[in-house]
Amino acid sequence: MNKQAIENQACIIGFKDKWIMRLGIPILGGIMPFIFFASCKTEPLSRSQLTVVLSVLNTFLLWHMDKGIIIYFRKKLPDHSDYAKRLFLQLSIISIATYLTLDTILFLLSMLPDIYLPPNAPAWSEILAGAFTIIAIVLAFYEAMYFFDLWKIELLENEKLKTANTKAQLDVLKNQVNPHFLFNSFNTLVSIIPEEPDIAVKFTTELSNFYRHILTFKDKELISLEQELECIDSYIYLLKIRFQDNLIIDKKITRSYPNHFIVPLSMQILVENAIKHNIISQSKPLTISIFMENDHICIENNYQEKRETTSTHTGLSNIQNRYKLLVEKEIKIQKNNEAFKVCLPLIKAQNL
């Protein structure tokens, strides 16, 4: 689960406690006097009734106060790396707040007539012992529930990830190993064999390389940028032979990026989308630029949409979902009347 989701659910994760509070507060408040207060251990139950009632009310107050402080620091420090700091601050603030609250309550009670007070009031040390036991129980309960809920959420996210990856792999194969692409490729090959046999051999080699990359990477979640660039180079060659001067692909990546990774075949899907949804002709050549921008690899094309094409944006959604589930990163999409641009974040090795 990503950080933003934890922040948004800070008041939900680990706080499904309606029935626990309804049962826990009266039970905990009712037994505390008989554990910590000497007078309740030795005197008849009838003389301890008022003490028990005050203990239940006090437990209700402390429980809700502790819960509020826990929620506050969950919002402020939601990241797992801040857990020790968050726990320390929660415990410190709860302890101080509890001490001040009890001191205030005792001061107010001291101003009441004796008839409204328990016959044998517990000592300050006994009250503190009971209160801090409540603190320990409440904090331990909510932290245990927090990690239990996170564990369940992570299991669900892993199942979603597996499902999404399986679907993504099938979509990639469906998009690439399809009759249209093969038909166009073989048509191009047949047309150049008689007049340009050397280019035909090169074309066949690049076509083989392209499908070899698909078969190699289809089961991987991430691949190196160098591997992705090798795949896109083969794909660009096939497209250039097919569309000739009607397609201009400007690849401006001039240096290597070691230890940088990317979702496999994502660049190829974006180039394919540009080919599929835009007019490509001698009067309207399509220009596709591939370049680096702020640790993102960007694919941009001039926007000249085919009117008869209805886009479902399946390929783009595929890439978005894979990035979100795998590395909790968002792709950037910019569109206007002149250009369409998608930027894919590079994932550094230390972030894996």
Structural features, described:
- By secondary structure, the chain is α+β, with helices and mostly antiparallel strands.
- It has two domains: 3-159, no CATH class; 178-351, Histidine kinase-like ATPase, C-terminal domain (Heat Shock Protein 90, 2-Layer Sandwich), CATH 3.30.565.
- The chain is 62% helix and 11% strand.
- It has eleven helices and eight strands.
- The protein has helices at residues 3-8, 18-36, 38-42, 49-76, 83-110, 124-176, 179-192, 197-217, 225-243, 266-277, 314-327, and strands spanning 223-224, 247-251, 260-262, 286-293, 296-302, 332-335, 339-345, 347-348.
- It has a five-stranded mixed β-sheet with strand order 2-4-5-7-6, with helices on one face. Strands 1-3-8 form a three-stranded antiparallel β-sheet.
- Helix 2 (18-36) crosses helix 4 (49-76) and helix 7 (179-192) runs antiparallel to helix 8 (197-217).
**Number of separate helices:** 11
Number of strand elements: 8
The biggest sheet amounts to: 5 strands, mixed
CATH fold group of the largest domain: Heat Shock Protein 90
What's the CATH H-level superfamily name of the largest domain?
Histidine kinase-like ATPase, C-terminal domain
Helical amount: 55-70%
For the biggest β-sheet, the strand order reads: 2-4-5-7-6
Q: Which stretches are low in confidence, meaning pLDDT under 50 for 5 or more residues running?
A: none
Q: What is the number of domains?
A: 2
Given the C-alpha coordinates, what overall shape results? rod-shaped
The helix-and-strand class reads alpha+beta
- Output the helix-strand order: HHHHHHHHEHEEHEEHEEE
- Residue-averaged pLDDT, rounded? 81
Q: End-to-end distance, in Å?
A: 15 Å
Quote the beta fraction: 5-15%
Alpha carbon gyration radius: 33 Å
Give the class-level CATH name of the largest domain.
Alpha Beta
Question: Any idea what the CATH architecture of the largest domain is?
Answer: 2-Layer Sandwich
